[in-house]
Amino acid sequence: MNKGKVTNWLLVLSLAVLLFGSGFKLGEFKALENSRSGSSYSLRNATPPPNIKSKEVDFGLFWETWDKVEQKFIDKKKVDPQKMFYGAIKGLVSSLEDPYTFFLTPDENKDSKADLEGKFEGIGAQLGLKSGRVVVIAPLKNSPAVQAGIQAGDYIVKVDGQSTKNWTLPQTVSKIRGKKGTTVKLTLLRGEKEFDVTITREQILVDSIDLSFEGKKGCKSNCEQVAVLKINQFGENTNNEWDRAVDQVKLRWGEGKIKGLVVDLRDNPGGFLESSVHVASEFLPEGKLVVKQESSVSENREYVATRQGKLLDIPVVVIINKGSASASEILAGALRDQKRAQLVGEKSFGKGSVQEALDLSRGAGLHVTIAKWILPGGAWINGKGIEPETKVENKLKEGNTITREDDLQLETAIGKLIK
């Protein structure tokens, strides 16, 4: 065999190997693109339902990435198919760039439901996102968070030394929660000051409603009183607890023993819209507008007072602060716009969107923003909050929690009812 023929033969052989290799890789990629069945995985329900609008989605890149992670990632113990699957769904939902739309794993969904039932284990603080940062909307009454001196408006910058930058709400909650008796270290930012607090987790039991009867500070005998109804959240038990408390208020009002009612919505992070409408219906004539819901995917809807209220004629003052959010802002805004109550305190949080909590298969969940709500006066307060007519700030010494003696906001509200 001469040199020229050997060269030609080697060239042909090289081309054959190259073509075979290319064909093999192309076939491998096609196999990844069309199916992921093999010794490790078997896809189920891979065909999208007919109502999915995006008809042509090439999943080749997804599976190529999955494949490379499995092949190359150094810590094989962390390559957990279930976590990777849930992580992919979380990424899909987070691409919408709405902090209130998020996917919940089965464990996270279970915890979320426990919140609204008023029972869970953790530190007892409602969290939110503001400008992409994790913020304390409100510490819950008598909780470990309150005992540790955490305040509404504190930013959580680290959890056990891990930065919370780009964390989702469910991710943050899952890191902070834990079994009773265990501890968690939070790095907080308050104003310009950054500091650490270590908190022991406890079982958190949250009553939706607290009722008391108060007079002006310093009054010793024969004091005129008002009812103070503190609404901590709008949860599973709120309506029943509210109805029982209102019966006591109505009785004293009918007997002339109180001069009015203070509805305290401070540090109330919200909850069920229907519960805020139920409470608003106590003060507004049946059929009166509470809030309008505007949606791009369904018909706009108006929520109105749904029943004959028991406190239609009692004077009302509502207290709000920067921890008042969502459903509590709906209540405060509706009573203000309908000229039914005066507002005292600080500007509220400013959450004006509506989420629907959906249960998905295998115990997972999805909270998705479906609409925005508009107050009766036409305002959409998202990111703006509600400004009270009478602005009053409680100024506390560092590390202190509020007491009746320090509570200038409550004293101001009572003063508007007791002249």
From TrEMBL:
Domain of life: Bacteria
GO CC list: outer membrane-bounded periplasmic space
Chain segments annotated as coiled-coil in the UniProt record: none
A Pfam entry, by short name: CtpB_N-like
Keywords per UniProt: Hydrolase, Protease, Serine protease
Cytoplasm among keywords: no
Domain PDZ stretches: 113-177
Single GO MF annotation: endopeptidase activity
PROSITE patterns, per database record: PDZ
SUPFAM superfamilies: ClpP/crotonase (SSF52096), PDZ domain-like (SSF50156)
GO biological-process terms attached to the record: proteolysis; signal transduction
PANTHER family assigned to the protein according to its UniProt record, in alphabetical order: CARBOXY-TERMINAL PROCESSING PROTEASE CTPA, TAIL-SPECIFIC PROTEASE
Similarity section: Belongs to the peptidase S41A family.
Protein name per Swiss-Prot or TrEMBL: PDZ domain-containing protein
Organism: Candidatus Roizmanbacteria bacterium RIFCSPLOWO2_01_FULL_40_42
Lineage: Bacteria, Candidatus Roizmaniibacteriota
